[in-house]
Write a structure and sequence with these properties.
- By secondary structure, the protein is an alpha/beta fold.
- It has three domains: about 110 residues, Rossmann fold; about 70 residues, Rossmann fold; about 60 residues, no CATH class.
- It contains twelve helices and ten strands.
- Helix 2 crosses helix 7 and helix 11 packs across helix 12.
Amino acid sequence: MIDDQGEQLGIMVPFDALKIARDNPDRDVVFFAVGFETTAPSTALTLLQAKAKAVTNFTVFSNHVTIVPPLKAILESPDLRLNGFLGPGHVSTVVGQRPYRFVPAEHGLPLVTAGFEPLDILQAISMLLTQIREGRCEVENQYSRVVREDGNPRALAVLADVFELRPHFEWRGLGFISQSGLKLRPEFAAFDAELRYEIPGVRVADPKACQCGEVLKGVIKPWECKVFGTACTPETPIGTCMVSSEGACAAYYNFGRMHREAAVTLGRRSKQTA
């Protein structure tokens, strides 16, 4: 988040940003809102509070996105090489299981919503492989202790009250995807940073060497990317799959062969300097 003087205020939740705005009425505060349906409800609730309290120096630059359109874009890729999906646990706590029904119905692929503990992921993978072995294509819920079929109705309601879908939104590695981003409804125009400020429509093209799109579609494994582990590492990321700690490339690098080789190299260097 930044203020009107370009000062970086750090990473925080939207309620923190609203508090800063209320505590500093002489300064404009813009909250840079990112994330899927997991984080969007907290932004929506903050905007409702800002509107109720008539806070005039607080705006939101919404870059929230939705889970189903990019999933459809991946599934509709002619070079798709995936056999199934682990559904995102945190997003699913809000949207539920129902939105994923099109995956087996229209594309004949199984999906298992998974939690984030090691045993959650192992069980979800086991459930997915069982479906594939038995020739089934269903939406199953491993994360049943948190995720419900219809998600969180109150969170979905507040999202509908505050946001509407953008016609298009550009994704790194996937390009423009229709109806995949969220913008503020006209009722919240006073809190929309895109309307209050002149925000240039700058496009940042993916580096030509980056193959994140192919990784996302299963066309190649992360280590098959030409820059994986050399020019592109978690310390010097090039593409989205390495930028995010949850990205496939970052996971392969941190917990796979590259991590082991880096540890061995570091150990050798330590012995040499000892």
